[in-house]
Amino acid sequence: QEQLVESGGGLVQAGGSLRLSCETSSSIVTFNLMGWYRQAPGKQREFVAYIYNYGDIGYAESVKGRFTISRDNAKNTVYLQMNSLKPEDTAVYYCRAVRATEFWGQGTQVTVSS
Q: What is the pLDDT of residues 3-18, one digit of tens each?
């Protein structure tokens, strides 16, 4: 069973930065697509960013220019660098990996104080 392990969440003040990591239990190159999603209290899970294994990258409008997704194949890890954080970025952040099927991590809490 594939496992995705997220880390890097925490409490930060508005304007600060965090870097989330998601490590896959098998080789990350077997996944066509890696992505980050988030879910705030009382809201539906929403898309944040994606990266295909051939390099295509995309972001939600709400995070463009502030967040950067990247992957390190040697470490089987995808990252989400989050800068200029806002209170509305507060959520549980989830990693998603897709090949023949999809897998999700357990989530990591990000809290941005005003």
A: 999 999 999 999 999 9
